[in-house]
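Please think about what follows:
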Amino acid sequence: MPIDPAAHCKIVFFLALSETLCAAESDTKMLPSMLRASRSALIASLLGAIAILPLHGGKPSATRPGYYRFPAIHGDIIIFTAEGDLWTVGRKGGAAQRLTSNPGPETHATISPDGTTVAFSARYEGPIDVYTMPVDGGLPQRWTWDGNATPVGWTTDGRLLYSTYRYSTIPNPQLVAIDSQGAREILPLSQGAQGIYSSDGKSLFFTRLDWQGSSTKRYKGGSVENIWRYEAGNEAVPLTADYEGTSRNPMFWEGRVYFLSDRDGTMNVFSMDREGHDPRQHTHHRGFDVQTASLSEGRIVYQCGADLWLLDLKNGDDAVIPITLVSDFDQLRDHWVKKPLDYLSTAHIAPDGSAAVFTARGEIFTLPAAASGRIVKIAANSEIRYREARYAPDGKSIIALSTETGETEFWKYPANGLGKPEPLTNDAKVLRREGCDPQKLRRA
């Protein structure tokens, strides 16, 4: 019988802790004797049965939505990443067609000016390098042997423009143009992470620094991305220095530079003239940031949340592209967890040493020291993520972080699994971390 396509297959497992206990015993000698003596009994009980959600006999849907990233557009063709592969779909949406199937990820697609070739990053031979293939699919061709190379666009004469760390003497990205014969031109910029040429090929709009590596909203630190303009024979000039936050992903159309910025609190699509003046806002998302974007013929396709959106610059229309995937969705199938400890995030021993509480895959379990004790699932709602569980000083309760309210708040749970949980905080403004004073039960 097929699995209900609307149900998520949930893996319930019990963690193998013998290695953890052995390390703790040899390093600290602080584990109670009953815990040390019961390692072999624990091994048998920890690797429990895997439970899946109920099955039903209904006919599963042939398509379903996915999580779409790194879109590229040329005319009516959109190429994007989903399930780690490249897919193609029309700009009006529909069922997408898979272009690649390698186990490794293919990302950062960019389509050539003539619309025949797509360049992308992949790990086919190990390092991240640049490959190309026909937009309709075919055998990928490797273009770089740099390691950590990313395609960012094309020059007006059809050369591929990519970012690489290979040629810098210090860890800075640089922009390189490569033609169909493999001849490379390193652009005369000490730093270059993203770049796009104006339609006349005279101006390069670029960012000096690569993404700073965190998901911090409204980042204003020393690695903030800004947009610059470079013209041959002249010094590069900053265009977004008037704003101390992020400005990235430059695109060019009809004399204006389009880019992504969080100057209204959320990453949205903005534009300015080629001198950096006359800023305009074109999208007004709240919550989810606009992540990556691509422009062709007056249309911008961009990622926001799990979806791709299409913005028509001519009339201002902005809407989700209704895309579905035809796939076996292998990641949603049941699978055995061969190394449960790989998913262990936190562990904490009860004050009297009789048990320990573990957090893994967003769920909370207590495991007894005695072989005759029972394993208790403290919190395992698949719609909620639980983090950093630990015993309260009295050993009767467990304090953990939960997203049940939509924010990360502290909750108290009965250690025996009987009874309802109790919220301890309701004022979270930022992502909280663990915090429990074992003497005063203070939370941070």
In short: The chain has two domains: 18-56+332-423, 69-325. The two ends are 48 Å apart (CA to CA). Confidence is low (pLDDT under 50) at residues 1-57. The CA atoms of residues 301 and 363 lie 37 Å apart.
